[in-house]
Amino acid sequence: MSKIPYTRNSPTARQQTTQVPADPNQPLGEVNPEHPLLEDPDALAERLAHSEDFLRHNKTMLLSVLAVVVLAVVGAFGYYTWRSSQDEKGQAAMFQAVHYWEADSLQKAMKGDGQYDGLESVASQYGGTKAGNLANFYAGVASLKEGKFQAAIDYLEDFSSDDLLVQARAYALLGDANLELGKTKEAADLYEKAANTNANEYFSPSYLMKEATARELAKDYDGAVKAYDKIINDYQTAAEVNEARESKARVEALAGK
């Protein structure tokens, strides 16, 4: 027996378009005329067939995409776990080095004592972790104290902190290292950066004094006067104000103003 397709235009369909609604207040008429898939089983079957064909033909692609997503999630979790483990190891390794650093035993702090790692090793082995990042700061300060100014720059440039007061201090130390190497403009710019990073009345005036001094050495007298003015106008209660006034007058006389 041949099957007569059930379509919207078939006699059977025309006979069934008017139905008694479940709600007695709903008027008689076509049910959901704006949704032909709900009225016409053939149309719904065709749509499902197309969906099945799409899944069948693209099965490999879809599985590949799913595999990539799963691998990304697993990889991210694995990396986070590994990095947390590395950070814990780095913190433990750095403990004795920091003790030597605080005691001013800089050689042992940097190189280790044969039993415990030094800051150099921690910074190198645990880069990308909080411990490695902090080791760069300690190593930078130690190198600066030892007169190894380029090494200090290398370490401090690899350090960053969300604590803006600490980050400002790192910029100032970078300024010190550059100034020792005769890079006066670079030093002045770093001191300015330190003064403007979380600017405050406790540290910014001293950074500005350093900036002004570096700009004087670079013969940038206008820049030096500007730094002195910032101390005088923005930090009127700072201990550096009187020195800034005197230095400003000296620089203006030197520049013939």
Task: Sum up the structure in keywords.
mainly alpha, disordered N terminus, 257 residues, 0% strand, Serine Threonine Protein Phosphatase 5, Tetratricopeptide repeat, single chain, 13 helices
Folded structure, characterized:
This protein is flat. The chain contains 13 helices and no strands. It has a domain at 161-257: Serine Threonine Protein Phosphatase 5, Tetratricopeptide repeat. The chain has 257 residues and is mainly alpha-helical. Helix 7 packs antiparallel against helix 8 (149-157).
Helix and strand succession? Answer: HHHHHHHHHHHHH
Q: End-to-end distance, in Å? A: 111 Å
Derived from helix and strand composition plus strand pairing, the structural class reads mainly alpha
Stated plainly, the CATH topology of the domain at 161-257 is called Serine Threonine Protein Phosphatase 5, Tetratricopeptide repeat
Let me know the number of strands. 0
Name the overall outline.
flat
Give the mean pLDDT: 80
CATH class designation of the domain at 161-257: Mainly Alpha
Contiguous helical run count: 13
